[in-house]
Amino acid sequence: MPNCDTPGNLILKVAVPVPLDRLFDYLPPLDLRLSELQPGVRVLVPFGKRQQVGVLMAVADNSSFDRDKLKPAIAILDTHPLLSATDISLLRWAARYYHHPLGEVLAAAFPVALRQGRPALLQRQPYFGLSPQGRLVAPEQLRRAPKQQALLTLLQTSGSAMTGTALSTYKSALKALLEKGLVAEQAPVPAAELALAQASLPANPEQQAAIAAVIAKLGRFAVSLLEGVTGSGKTEVYMQIIAKVLEQGKQVLVLLPEISLTPQLEQRFLQRFAVNMVSTHSKLTDKQRLQAWLSMQQGHSAIMLGTRSALFTPLPRPGLIILDEEHDSSFKQQEGFRFSARDVAIARAKGLGIPVLLGSATPSLESMANVAQHRYQLLHLPNRAGNATAPRFQLLDIRNKRMEAGLSEPLLAEVHATLAKQQQALIFLNRRGYAPVQICHGCGWVSRCRRCDANLVIHAADRVLRCHHCGSEQPLLKHCPACKTGELQALGLGTERIEQTLEAVFPDKVVVRLDRDTTQRKGSLEQYLEQIHDGAVDIILGTQMLAKGHHFPGVTLVAILDIDSGLFSIDYHGSERLAQLIVQVAGRAGRADQPGKVILQTRHPQHPLLDTLLSKGYRAFAQSALQERRQAGLPPFGHQALLRVQAGKAEEPQQFLQAVCQAINSLNPGKVQVLGPVAAPMARRAGLFRFQLLLQSPQRKELHQLLDSLLPAIYALKDAKKVRWSLDVDPVDLY
DNA sequence: AGCACGCCGACT
DNA sequence: GTCGGCGTGCTC
């Protein structure tokens, strides 16, 4: 077809990244080449007074919009679609399922650079490295790069199969070059021989069974749940399955809950696989993330490691999706397009016809229920590698016990005994700062945040009172601002205070505190972890982040200082999270020759949750928790959607939700229960008043049908303009 | 979401 | 007399 032809009646249907749930129609750009008009290309369009980068969804010959009001698109930005038809249908499905505007959902699939309209240009980087067989790998292009020529010659003369010192010389030379940026870690297009896994560890029978089970499913959709305690060798299972996928020339997407776990796994994969591998997470620059995305999208890399947002990376040769620590709530996006990376990963694999492997020591109740219903296959790794024994649990009843700043005397004695044996102790408290509130002994004044329904937390080292919800700060007070005379006291415990106590009680021991405040600086977490592994640390103290990933083989005593707050949570997810936390923290400890001990301080030693978990294990806990959920009609037996609203004045969210309730009543809600409107558990945050409405139904279909008709009605509400509202389908956090 | 337009209070 | 507050409306 000639390029100069007026393209007749062609109308471009474009998804634009704005919170409007519809497509926008455009005339083709003036310099159009018809070959470019494929769904999945980016289109630069005029949008009101500004320009937007949208995605072409379809080309039609008609528009419901007034034809002479249509504007021509400015340019088609890609010569080939960046998203395949399968990717687009997944994103369409996700937009429908989460009831989120398609344009914004599509935007979430692209790295920022592409959203901004940057060219989709993959810069292939020079590379050389060792093949698994010890052979030198270098693409031709490198030989022409004068800078590297000398070194390349040197390396080539070092022989094709290096061993011993030659190998380590080579490796350190390579490392130096990598640091100077003279070579990149990216290998050339993967050759089948390089994809083969090397030096695989001998798998135990359970590992072999798990590996075989997933390999048997390659090439079709299936979900497997790998339940394996810390140290049971899940990563080895992943790697042997990945090796098989690579052998078939396919790509693997590995999703992890957070950045800090990526380097660890990256290291192990780099040692094992000689294919191109990329990782992507929020600490990389936009350019790096673009390159990683394109490298997968263009089939140049075979493995991508990444967090939640990596899920939508296009895969021309999809083979397998692995989602590690599948129970982790950070797989659920908590703002904007609130998708569950786990659930969408499964939908994606279904569309691609490939298997998904979910891994966890403490699978989510949803996944356990799916196993019970034979939707997922359960693969179990019951044993810790190297015959390490499981830790012993001890409930420490602290009622009426003497406490030293949150640490009971029996616990301190255990810490003493552990340190005396030159072993490490790990102490967990999920509250950072010095103390959660400051109180006046004279008049009862407490340090409240002016903008939130929350107390200001004492941060002694920074000498500030800080709100953990909006970030506002004020200097630490010396005198009560209310009565001017009363003595101000720190009430309650945070990690900073425990650190002080531990340093006072164990003056000759090294205490390291790991929380957001001590690990904010880049690389500081890694530095601390190294010290801990080198045995330079006696007591490790910290929050949440201790529960994730990192294993501490020198630790034989784990103490969880306060589990009671998790026992009586208002959110029904609380008990599941507590059980997962206990098992995960416990998993940090112990080794073959020294079983670990886990002490849980509680004032509720008879609590049934603790009893089931500690006497019968996580699976039994999950069974009984699921039983409770079933009786209450809660997920996964019921289905929920939460409408959250906030605004500057308290009446606005209430009015809005009342209008929404009216709309629901006019829409025949059927069996869908409407709970609320109620004030959010934290009714005011960052100066905004927050309310919510929970919709719940025994049938997912019914809930979604209601939402389908409710959302247009909400968009049309006049009150909707006065508030900030968002819909959370399958909420995991009811706050 | 942006970004305009539009109609009422304290300032160069 | 204007600068600017944020209510309301629109984006093909």
From TrEMBL:
**Uppermost EC category:** isomerase
Question: Where along the chain is Zn(2+) 1 bound?
Answer: 440, 443, 480, 483
Q: Spell out the family assignment given in the record's similarity comment.
A: Belongs to the helicase family. PriA subfamily.
Positions of the Helicase ATP-binding domain: 215-381
Tell me which UniProt keywords the record has, alphabetically.
Answer: ATP-binding, DNA replication, DNA-binding, Helicase, Hydrolase, Isomerase, Metal-binding, Nucleotide-binding, Primosome, Zinc
Task: Please indicate which superkingdom the organism of origin belongs to.
Answer: Bacteria
**Quaternary structure per UniProt?**
Component of the replication restart primosome.
Helicase C-terminal domain location is: 460-632
Q: Which InterPro entries match?
A: DEAD/DEAH_box_helicase_dom, Helicase_ATP-bd, Helicase_C-like, P-loop_NTPase, PriA, PriA_3primeBD, PriA_3primeBD_sf, PriA_C
How the cofactor is bound: the record states: Binds 2 zinc ions per subunit.
Q: Its Enzyme Commission number?
A: 5.6.2.4
Record field: catalytic activity = ATP + H2O = ADP + phosphate + H(+); Couples ATP hydrolysis with the unwinding of duplex DNA by translocating in the 3'-5' direction
Organism in which the protein naturally occurs: Methylomonas albis
| Protein name, entry field | Replication restart protein PriA
| Reported function | Initiates the restart of stalled replication forks, which reloads the replicative helicase on sites other than the origin of replication. Recognizes and binds to abandoned replication forks and remodels them to uncover a helicase loading site. Promotes assembly of the primosome at these replication forks.
Q: According to its UniProt record, what is one Pfam family this protein matches? A: PriA_3primeBD
Q: What is the lineage of its organism?
A: Bacteria, Pseudomonadati, Pseudomonadota, Gammaproteobacteria, Methylococcales
